[in-house]
Amino acid sequence: MPLSDDQNSDSDSSRLSESTASSSDSEYSRQSFNSDSSSKPSSPASSPPKVITFDELMAAARNLTDLSLAHEIAVNANFCIKHECLPQNSLAGTVKQIVHKAFWDHLESELNEDPPEYEHAIKLFEEIKEILLSFLTPGANRIQNQICEVLDTDLIRQQAEHNAVDIHGLANYIINTMGKLCAPIRDNDIKQLKATDNIVELLRQIFRVLDLMKVDMANYTIQNLRPYLQRNLVDYERTKFQEILEETPSALDLTTEWIKESIEDELSSISAESSSSPGADSTSKPIISPTLVLNNSYLKLLQWDYRKTIPETLITDEVRLQELREKLNQLKIIACVCLITNNMVGAAIVDVPDFADQLKRISVPLLEGMNKKTFDLKEALNAIGVQICSKVNRSLTERGLPALSEEMQSNLVGQIAHIVEENNPVSCLIDKRIQFFMRSLLALPSVQKCMPTVPGGLSVIQTEMELVGSQYASIVNFNKKVYGPFYANILRKLLFPEAPVGKAETETPTN
């Protein structure tokens, strides 16, 4: 695309969303959370309570928008701007169509007058000139001067007074200039413009193609900006969030509650263990690992009710985390189906190669869209159970063995259908093993180098689990890098409330 001569490459830098950090709990002792690191410039400062004005609130909203956009550009390689097309049958689409038709009909009537009235056309040429100039890169002086000279509206007005405007000549110049500046994907659009004779329709189509070129330009800019953002995203996001926090001191309230819940869960677990262990010292204050608390907080996101507001520090990854949770829910159902089938008819299918994969191929299509409100999971599970019985019977018949009894088939279908019930033992077991796998992932120094052993019962979904786990660990570890100082500050206040309040450490417990 001839909009810039400088296209940056960043082959040496790895994707930030895949970066991980490692450390041990010993590096984050009570002393590190009590220390005052106010001399460290990247530490988030504590903000005193203050009254928030509307302008400050809007400034915080703009910062959040900038932060979210930068994060999406950097971590999502497929992110791009798309041209907005309103549905024709929608109210907005109908209104737009009516207004545009009225405008272009009015322009046509003006140009058909004798002598023609050019004022509205001149305003369109002025707008086209500004759009063309916006596509130019710094230093493109020759074409800039040419555009300003040819589309000089003062000169065009003087020509209009003497009925000497070459409106077709101006349109042809615009089309040729657009052809020089557009992306190759717009070449066919330029050819269609050159084949259009009606001047009003031509101007209308010029604006349509210019709108497409604006989108192309935005995506071209995003493409060139992405490597820079990937190199500097940690500092950029942390700085932006600090600005939000200064404008809105309550911007960490949900995050604080999120971490506080994990601390309370850990205290309850320690208390339960102490009460069940005779001779345990119940008077001593329990020691809680900040790393464990933070990792447990992240694990909660895999079971989060996304109808609730997510912690502020995770807003930029909310969609990705929700997609991972939905994928894990589907994988859990598949693992439950396979485990129940193996337990009930395992002896009949033990000699069938890749039977677990066959069960997965049966389940996946029927579970498509299971996270939609209109999806009937129990009905889908019944259908899966019926198809599995049919598959098992066909396999038995092919090997000259008797088919499953009606009672056995009924029990198999029933147990699969009961997966959806609350506190179902098979579902709870698989869920615990998935949580164990994800917790093990967060404890690894580098997910890229090795994966934890997949617990029993999950081998049928091992490939999918490792993919989801890798994406999840990448999100978590990058989030720790960005918001680590804020988490450290919160953890110090919650775990060591008697300690003097200062600025947070520039690092946080990672793994």
Give the arrangement of secondary structure elements.
Elements: H1 30-34, H2 54-75, H3 91-111, H4 119-134, H5 141-150, H6 153-161, H7 167-181, H8 187-194, H9 199-247, H10 253-276, H11 290-300, H12 318-349, H13 355-366, H14 377-398, H15 406-417, H16 425-443, H17 462-495
Helix pairs in contact: 2-9, 4-6, 4-9, 7-8, 7-9, 9-17, 10-11, 10-17, 12-13, 12-14, 12-15, 12-16, 12-17, 13-14, 14-15, 16-17
List keywords for this structure.
mainly alpha, 63% helix, 511 residues, extended
Unreliable stretches? 1-52, 502-508
> Count of helical segments?
17
Overall strand count = 0
Largest sheet: none
Helix content: 55-70%
Mean pLDDT: 80
How much of the polypeptide forms β-strand, as a percent range? Answer: under 5%
> What class would the helix/strand composition place it in?
mainly alpha
N-to-C series of helices and strands? HHHHHHHHHHHHHHHHH
CA radius of gyration: 32 Å
- How far the N terminus sits from the C terminus, by CA atoms, comes to 44 Å
C-alpha geometry? extended
Task: Explain what the structure shows.
The structure is a single chain. With 511 residues, the protein is mostly helical. It has 17 helices and no strands. The chain has helices at 30-34, 54-75, 91-111, 119-134, 141-150, 153-161, 167-181, 187-194, 199-247, 253-276, 290-300, 318-349, 355-366, 377-398, 406-417, 425-443, 462-495. α7 runs antiparallel to α8, α12 (318-349) packs across α16 and α12 crosses α17. The protein starts with 29 loop residues before the first helix and ends in a 16-residue tail after the last helix. The model is unreliable at 1-52 and 502-508 (pLDDT under 50).
